Amino acid sequence: MNALFFKLTLAIYFAATIAYLAYLVKPREVLGKVSCWILSAGFVAHCAYTVDRYLEAGHTPITNLHESLSFFSLAVVGIYILFERKYRIFILGSFVTPVAFLLMAASTGFPSAIMPLNPALKSKWLMVHTVMAFLSYAAFSVAFGAAIMYLIQQHFLKSKKLGPMYQKLPSLDILDEINYRCLTIGFPLLTFAIISGAIWAESAWGTYWSWDPKETWSLITWFVYAALLHGRLTTGWRGKKAAILAIVGFFVLLFTFLGVNLFLSGLHSYK
Amino acid sequence: MNIVVVGLSHKTASVDIREKVAFAPTQMEKPLRALLAIEDIAEAVIVSTCNRVEVYISTRDIAGGMARIKRFLADYHGISPEILEPHLYAHHGEAAIRHVFRVASSLDSMVVGEPQILGQIKTAYGYAAEFKTSGIILNRFLHKAFSVAKRVRTETKIASSAVSVSFAAVELARKIFGNLSDKTVMLIGAGEMCELAAKHFINNGVRGVMVTNRTYERAVKLAEEFEGKPVSFDDLFDQLHKADIVLSSTGATQFIIKPKDVEEVIRRRKLKPMFFIDIAVPRDIDPKVNDVENVYLYDMDDLQGVVASNLQQRAEEAKKAEAIIDEEIGQFHKWLSNLEVTPTIVALRSKFEETRKAELEKTLASWKDLPPDGAKRLEALTTAIVNKLLHPPTATLKRVGQGGRTDLYVDALRTLFELQTGESEAEELGELEE
C-alpha cells in the first residue's frame, strides 16, 4: 500500500512537472489550471503516503533521508499550492514543481525501510521540530523559485532584450512580494524549529545547544535569512539584492539539510 | 447564392478618397435601404471606418452585383466612377470570405492586431440587423467572422504586445511595478510626446502626476490639465523621490539627470524601483542611470526597439492566424455550398415524388382487376425506381457542393427539371441549419 502511494505520487509529480514545463513554453490559462490540478492530485497522494507511513511506523516519518526528502517535497508542494491559490501565477509552478519532483526522486536513492526509532528520537518534539523545519525549508524553496524568476525578468528589463520569456514572467513587483511573503512565513517557522530543537535536545541529552554541525549550520541559515529580513524591514533591501540573498540562503539551507547529513557526522546524521 | 465584397481601404486609397466614400455611422439606414432596393441584391451590410469602406452583399449574380455596388458607391457619394474604380477591390466566393475573415481578425489593418476593427464590424452588422438588411447568409457569415476573429485572438498572440512607443512604456511599467494604481508619474518638460505618454499612463490607472518645466507657468498649466501638481524646476531633485515613473522630454542639450542624482534619489526611496523614460532627443538622462540598482531607463531608441520586436512578433503570429482562417474558410464555404445544393436536391426529390404519386394514382384508379397486394407492390416498385434514378445526381450534387462550380449544376438542374427557384426554401433551410 505504502509503496503504491509512493509510486503514484512520484508519477503524478512527474506528470505535473511536464505539464508546468509545457506551460512555460505555451502559457495558456487552461494548461496552467490543468497543471495545478495534477499537482494537487499528487499532493493528495503524497499526503496519503505520509499518513499511511505514519500509521505504520507509529511516529512522524521524518527519521531518515528517504522520509525527509519526501516530506521536504510534500511541504514544498503544499506551500506552493497556497501561493498558487493566492497569486494565480502558474509560471511559478514551472520553477517550483521540478524542485519538488527532484526531491521526491532523490528520496528513492535512500533506503526506505521503516527502522525502529533511536531512543533520543522518541519524543513528542519529533513532530513539532521537524515539521516546522521542513515547512520553513519549503517556504524558502518557493522564495528561491521566485528569486530566480526575478533575476531573469530583471535581466530582460535592464538589458532591454525582451524575449518571449519576458512576456511570460510576472512583474518584478509580484516576484519581490512573493519573495518577501515566503520570508515572513519561513523565518518564524525556522526560528521556532530551532527553538523547539533546542528544547528537545535539553530533554534528550541535557543540553540546549552542543554545536553539533547541524546546529551550527542551522544557525548560519537562520542568520542569512535574519539578515535578509532585517535588510528588508530597515534599509528597504528589495529587488535584486533580496533575490540574490534568497538564492544564497537556499543553498546554505540545502547544505544544512543534505550536506551536513551526507558529509559531516553528528547527531542529525541519519544512518 | 454568393457573397460579394466591394470596398476600399488604407491599402488602396488615400485618405482624401476614403473621406469622400465614408458613410456617417449614425445614418446607415438610408444607404442600407438604397442598397437593398437594387435588383438582385438580397442582403447588404456596410462597414465604414476611417481606414476602410466595404459593402457586403449576398446575390445570385456575381458580376452584376459587383458592378451595381460600384455604381452605388459612386452615385451615393457623387464621385465619378472613373475616379473611384481604381481604388476599389471586389471579391466573391472564397476570396470574399477570406477577405472579411482577415479584416475582422485585424490582419488587414494598418497596425496588424489592433482590436478596434472587430468592434466596428460588429456595429456595422448591428445596423444591418436593425434595419433588416442582412439575412440568413450574411448573418451566418458575419457571426462566423466574429468567431474566427475570436479564435485568432485567443489562439495567437497577435495583439498581446504594445506597438506604439507610449503603450510600450506602459507595458514596461506594468512589468516593473505590477499594478500602476498607486504609482506617481513625474513629467519633466512639457513636450507633446511627453504629454501623450503621460495620458497613456493616466488612462492605465496611474494615480498621481507631477509636472516640472523650466518655465514654471507652463508646468502649472500642464499640471492643471492632468489634475496634477506643478513642481518648480529648481526643486526637481527634492521631489524626484516621490515619482515612480519619470517622463523626460526637455530641450536641454546636456544630461540633466546623472547617475549620482539617481543614486541619491533611490536611497531616499529605500530602493523602491524607478522607471525613467527619456523621450528627448538629444537625451536628458545619462544612459549610465540604467546601471543604478532597481532603476530602469529606456530612451526613445530602446522603446522603438521594443515596438519593433513586438511588431515582428505580431508578423509571426499573423502567420498562425492565416492558418486558422484557412481552416475556417473551408467550413463556411461548405455550409454556403450546401445551402445552395440542398434546396435543389429537396426540390428535385419532391418533383419526382409528386410525379410518381400522380401517375400511380392515375394507374390505380383505372386498374380494375388489381391483385389484393397489387397497390402495395406498385408503390414499392415506383419508389424504388425513383430512388435509384435520383441517387447519382444527388450524390454528384453533394460532391460538387463541397468543391465549387455549384452554380453550374444547380442552374442546369433547375432549368432541365423546371424546379422552383424560390428563396423561401433556401431561407427555411438556412433557419434549420442555424
TrEMBL record, chain A:
Which Gene Ontology cellular component terms are annotated? plasma membrane
Q: Where in the cell is it found?
A: Membrane
Q: Which GO terms describe its biological process?
A: cytochrome complex assembly
* InterPro entries linked: Cyt_c_assembly (IPR002541), Cyt_c_biogenesis_CcmC (IPR003557), Cyt_c_biogenesis_CcsA (IPR017562), Cyt_c_biogenesis_CcsA/CcmC (IPR045062)
| Parts of the chain that traverse the membrane | 6-23, 63-83, 90-114, 126-152, 178-201, 216-235, 242-264
Q: Where is the Cytochrome c assembly protein domain?
A: 63-268
Principal localisation: membrane
Instruction: Mention any Pfam family matching this sequence.
Output: Cytochrom_C_asm
The family line of this record is: Belongs to the CcmC/CycZ/HelC family.
Q: What's the protein here called?
A: Heme exporter protein C
Species of origin: Geobacter metallireducens (strain ATCC 53774 / DSM 7210 / GS-15)
